[in-house]
Amino acid sequence: DIQMTQSPSSLSASVGDRVTITCRASQSISNYLNWYQQKPGKAPKLLIYAASSLQSGVPSRFSASGSGTDFTLTISSLQPEDFATYYCQQSYSTPYTFGQGTKLEIK
Amino acid sequence: QVQLVQSGAEVKKPGASVKVSCKASGYTFTSYYMHWVRQAPGQGLEWMGIINPSGGTTSYAQKFQGRVTMTRDTSTSTVYMELSSLRSEDTAVYYCARGSVYYGSGSSSIAFDCWGQGTLVTVSS
C-alpha cells in the first residue's frame, strides 16, 4: 500500500495568514493526488484534484502543486471558515490511501 | 443537485453484521463508481472499497476482504455496504463517496466529489 504522510499534523494560524501543508507519498504517484477539507461532524469536501486543479466552487485562495512524491496545499489568506482538518489522498492505486490529516486551528 | 443520502445510525453487538445504504440522486447512477470510506472517532479516513453500479463489480481493501460486501440496486439508485463479524474497532462513521474521473492532458484522475452525510456504526456489547 502507498503511505501518505502529511506535515504538520496540526497548525495554528491567524485570519489573513498564508499557510502551507505538505503531503509526501511513499512512492511516486505522478499527479494522482487530491486534497479534502473536513469540518467537525461533516463529510469531507473535495478541494483539489489531480494535484493542482481547483474543484468547481472552491475559492481561489486555495492552490496546490507537486508531482511524484511531494505535494503542497497552500491557503493564501486564511478566512474564518478555513479552520478545519485537511487530508491528502492518492488515487494512483488501490487502496486509495489518505494522509493522517492536518488540523488547522485558530491562533 | 447531486446528493447521496445514507441510512441512519446503528448500534450492533460484537460478531453481528451491519448493512448501510446510500441512495443517489441528481445524476445517472450507473455512470459513476461508488466508494466507501470510514472514519473511526477522532481518527483519519480509511478507504474500504469500490463498486461499479453499472455491472456490480467490486474491489475491496485487503484489510476488509472476507468481511465486507458491497452491492447495488439500480432500480432504486442505491448502493449498500455490509460489514460482518463486527468488533469494537469497527466503531466509526461510514461514508459513501462518488468517484469522478477528471481528464487532463494525456491522463485521467479519480477524486471523490460528492459524499454522503455519514452513518455512525457503534459496536458495543
Chain-wise SSE layout:
The complex is a heterodimer of chains A (107) and B (125).
Chain A: E1 4-7, E2 10-13, E3 19-25, E4 33-38, E5 45-49, E6 53-54, E7 62-67, E8 70-75, E9 85-90, E10 102-106
Parallel strand pairs in A: 2-10
Antiparallel strand pairs in A: 1-3, 3-8, 4-5, 4-9, 5-6, 7-8, 9-10
Chain B: E1 3-6, E2 10-12, E3 18-25, E4 33-39, E5 46-51, E6 58-60, E7 68-73, E8 78-83, E9 92-103, E10 108-115, E11 119-123
Parallel strand pairs in B: 2-11
Antiparallel strand pairs in B: 1-3, 3-8, 4-5, 4-9, 5-6, 7-8, 9-10, 9-11
What do you see in this structure?
The complex is a heterodimer of chains A (107) and B (125). Chain A is built from no helices and ten strands. Chain A is mostly beta strands and 107 residues long. Chain A has a six-stranded mixed β-sheet with strand order 2-10-9-4-5-6, with no helix packed on it. In chain A, strand 5 and strand 6 form a beta hairpin. The relative contact order of chain A is 0.34. Chain B starts with a strand and ends with a strand. In chain B, 0% of the residues lie in helices and 54% in strands. Chain B is built from no helices and eleven strands. Chain B has 125 residues and is mainly β. In chain B, strands 2, 4, 5, 6, 9, 10 and 11 form a seven-stranded mixed β-sheet that branches. A four-stranded antiparallel β-sheet of chain B has the order 1-3-8-7, with no helix packed on it. The model of chain B has no long low-confidence stretch (mean pLDDT 96). Chains A and B meet through strand 5 of A and strand 5, strand 9 and strand 10 of B.
